[in-house]
Amino acid sequence: MFNLENIVRPNVLKMKAYSSARDEFKGAASVFIDANENNLGSLAGEGYNRYPDPHQKKLKEKIADIKGLSPKQIFLGNGSDEAIDLLFRMVCRPGQDSMLHLRPTYGMYEVSANLNEVQLDAVQLTPDFQIPVLEVLRQVKDTTKLIFICSPNNPTGNLIEPESIETLLDNFDGLVVVDEAYIDFADVPSWSTRLAEYPNLVILQTFSKAWGMAGLRLGMAFASEEIIALLDKIKPPYNINEATQELALKALEQTEQLAYMIEEIVQEREMLVQALPSLDAVEKVYPSDANFLLVKVRNANRLYSYLLEQGIVVRNRSSLPGCEGCLRISVGTVDENQLLFQAISNFK
């Protein structure tokens, strides 16, 4: 049975969070000389001489309203990668504990495991890129603290069957982390709607994909209030800068434009799904619920180089187990997709 205190590192439970100047004073004042800021102003613009809100209260309240959550269920990070790294720091003892992920998948799970000296256990997805649940449960050890599941999966693009995720949540006493970076392009509810059912569930989302804010580095984690409180406890005090907070608040007022962009990207994705198989160089286009396609091609390395010569950059994923001979192609604009199609059609 899941018990959060049983998996959190003892030193994390005991430690005190950093107390910033903005934590120690709450209220109105006309003179701020408590944080060693530059009171003459900022060369970057008005207000940037001051430290940002370390708790991102306004931003969390707006996200909570859109997502149907409490602000206390939301952690904001410098990209989802920060949340991934902090989850390792929160529960995994370096040199003692382990994690498990499903290959092929997003590479930062492995990078964070290696950085934090956590043993990396991996299970290969099935040929249709689903979870072999029984094999995963056989691989779970007493030291396994985290299972990472990317859904829709990167680089394959498909959603993971919900029944598989439910089984792992029901039978694993550590944290199951569902990375939903691409969920806005899928016609299914987020796992954030099921947080009340599973105290060991953590969901990752990002502003980098559908929201078009990759350059601002803003990621989200949704979980129980207890898990979020621990993540907030161990994060750097000012991990989301003021410019990012301001621009994200503006973006969150444009949900109609977001829906329009998602619709256009999905339409272009489906156009590519229909068109690419007609090309001689294309052997298979895998189903996708993301903003990219995994495409099996004839001579992936040569086609990749050829596209570079045409000024078109895709991602060569053919070295990954299960993705042999495959390129990962992001959905571009109408014009970009036409250029891609024409380039591949001319490939000999």
Automatic annotation (TrEMBL):
<dbReference type="InterPro" id="IPR001917">
    <property type="entry name" value="Aminotrans_II_pyridoxalP_BS"/>
</dbReference>
<comment type="pathway">
    <text>Lipid metabolism.</text>
</comment>
<keyword id="KW-0368">Histidine biosynthesis</keyword>
<dbReference type="GO" id="GO:0000105">
    <property type="term" value="P:L-histidine biosynthetic process"/>
</dbReference>
<feature type="modified residue" description="N6-(pyridoxal phosphate)lysine">
    <location>
        <position position="209"/>
    </location>
</feature>
<feature type="domain" description="Aminotransferase class I/classII large">
    <location>
        <begin position="34"/>
        <end position="343"/>
    </location>
</feature>
<dbReference type="InterPro" id="IPR015421">
    <property type="entry name" value="PyrdxlP-dep_Trfase_major"/>
</dbReference>
<comment type="similarity">
    <text>Belongs to the class-II pyridoxal-phosphate-dependent aminotransferase family. Histidinol-phosphate aminotransferase subfamily.</text>
</comment>
<dbReference type="InterPro" id="IPR015424">
    <property type="entry name" value="PyrdxlP-dep_Trfase"/>
</dbReference>
<comment type="pathway">
    <text>Amino-acid biosynthesis; L-histidine biosynthesis; L-histidine from 5-phospho-alpha-D-ribose 1-diphosphate: step 7/9.</text>
</comment>
<dbReference type="GO" id="GO:0004400">
    <property type="term" value="F:histidinol-phosphate transaminase activity"/>
</dbReference>
<keyword id="KW-0028">Amino-acid biosynthesis</keyword>
<comment type="subunit">
    <text>Homodimer.</text>
</comment>
<keyword id="KW-0808">Transferase</keyword>
<keyword id="KW-0663">Pyridoxal phosphate</keyword>
<dbReference type="InterPro" id="IPR005861">
    <property type="entry name" value="HisP_aminotrans"/>
</dbReference>
<dbReference type="Pfam" id="PF00155">
    <property type="entry name" value="Aminotran_1_2"/>
</dbReference>
<dbReference type="GO" id="GO:0030170">
    <property type="term" value="F:pyridoxal phosphate binding"/>
</dbReference>
<dbReference type="InterPro" id="IPR004839">
    <property type="entry name" value="Aminotransferase_I/II_large"/>
</dbReference>
<protein>
    <recommendedName>
        <fullName>Histidinol-phosphate aminotransferase</fullName>
        <ecNumber>2.6.1.9</ecNumber>
    </recommendedName>
</protein>
<keyword id="KW-0032">Aminotransferase</keyword>
<dbReference type="InterPro" id="IPR015422">
    <property type="entry name" value="PyrdxlP-dep_Trfase_small"/>
</dbReference>
